[in-house]
Amino acid sequence: MGYSTREAKVQDVPAITRIYNQGIEDRVATLETRLRTEDEMKDWLLNRSEKNKVLVIEDENNNVYGWASLNIFNSRCCYSGIADISIYIERQMRGKGLGKILLTSLIKTAKEQGFHKMVLSTFKYNEAGQRLYKAMGFREVGTYIRQGMLDGKWVDVTIMEKHLLDDVTSK
Ligand SMILES: CC(C)(COP(=O)(O)OP(=O)(O)OC[C@H]1O[C@@H](n2cnc3c(N)ncnc32)[C@H](O)[C@@H]1OP(=O)(O)O)[C@@H](O)C(=O)NCCC(=O)NCCS
Fold it and tell me: I want to staple 138 with a disulfide (CB 3.0 to 4.6 A). Which of 21, 85, 153, 160 is the partner?
């Protein structure tokens, strides 16, 4: 089965909502615990600037299995060249290479939109996420200790970055 990526459309909102809620339920990806409604995710999708794209990954039958987004890192205009990213793959489809396809496409899109850097936050124990990001050239910046609470337990959050203009991290 072949997979391809494209920009998300409003018709993708049910799939985007389902996949995001799986990520919330699984407690590996986000400090959010409140499941989202389709109306909330529709607002999220439609009220974004042109450069803050959302991509989906689908199979040849147009079944959507994941989404990824270029989010605002910080609303101050001095940070407008930095994209904070999210990526979620359907629970049953994880570990099959879809994350790599989708993130490759998101990196290309970020470059096209003029971002110079992508950043993300990830839990230390999110092994699939950490391996995906490292494989795609993200470097670990550091870890916030006790950055949030999840089900009554403190969670440490690791920050990672990928430079898009050139690899300044090795200089
Ligand atoms: C994290 C996530 C996006 C990765 O996408 P994926 O399609 O599952 O990952 P891929 O199959 O493309 O594999 C990417 C890398 O992760 C590794 N990997 C995948 N699943 C893994 C697992 N369960 N445990 C350990 N490593 C795993 C792969 O081996 C590969 O690493 P490699 O290149 O060093 O071999 C996906 O698992 C997901 O949506 N998880 C839940 C939501 C989430 O955690 N989002 C990220 C929040 S920071």
Answer: 160
Handedness of CA 62, 50, 138, 140 (dihedral sign): negative
Q: What is the CATH number of the domain that holds 153?
A: 3.40.630.30
Determine the Cα–Cα distance for residues 14 and 129; give it in Å rounded to an integer. Answer: 24
What's the pLDDT score for residue 79? 97
What DSSP assignment string belongs to 66-97?
A: EEEEEEES-SSGGGTTEEEEEEEE-GGGTTSS
**Listed residue (91, 98, 99, 95) closest to 27, CA to CA:** 91
65 in helix, strand or coil? strand
Tell me, using a 6 A CB cutoff, whether residue 122 lines ligand 1.
yes
Using the mean position of ligand 1's atoms as its centre, give its distance from the Cα of residue 129 in Å. 5
Number of domains in the chain: 1
Residue 28 in contact with ligand 1 by CB distance below 6 A = yes
| Under-70 pLDDT residues of the chain | 167, 169-171
Domain that holds residue 75: 3-170
pLDDT for position 171? 53
- pLDDT tens for residues 95-106? 999 999 999 999
Ligand 1 centre and the CA of 132: distance in Å? 5
